[in-house]
Amino acid sequence: MFKIGDFSKLSSLSIRMLRHYDKVELLQPVKVDEQSGYRYYSADPMFNIYHVSPAMESDPNKWVTEVCYPVK
């Protein structure tokens, strides 16, 4: 599992965007520490992030569609 900062670096998504995606239930952490509030992410969603990143630049709405319904 990765802390939000490490996951941000690996995914090239800002911490702010990761928090936003968590809030809108688009990309949620696998665990949130109850005491510290730290978010922990697994590498599982990395495929979806890397798959749609180029598409996101041309059409941000595609991100929502493909993360919710990954292309196989």
From TrEMBL:
The keyword Cell cycle does not apply. Keywords: DNA-binding. Residues 1-42 form the HTH merR-type domain. GO terms for molecular function: DNA binding; DNA-binding transcription factor activity. The keyword DNA-binding applies. It comes from the Bacteria. InterPro entries: DNA-bd_dom_put_sf, MerR-type_HTH_dom, MerR_fam. PANTHER family: MERR FAMILY REGULATORY PROTEIN (PTHR30204:SF97), REDOX-CYCLING DRUG-SENSING TRANSCRIPTIONAL ACTIVATOR SOXR (PTHR30204). This is MerR-like DNA binding protein. It comes from Bacillus thuringiensis.
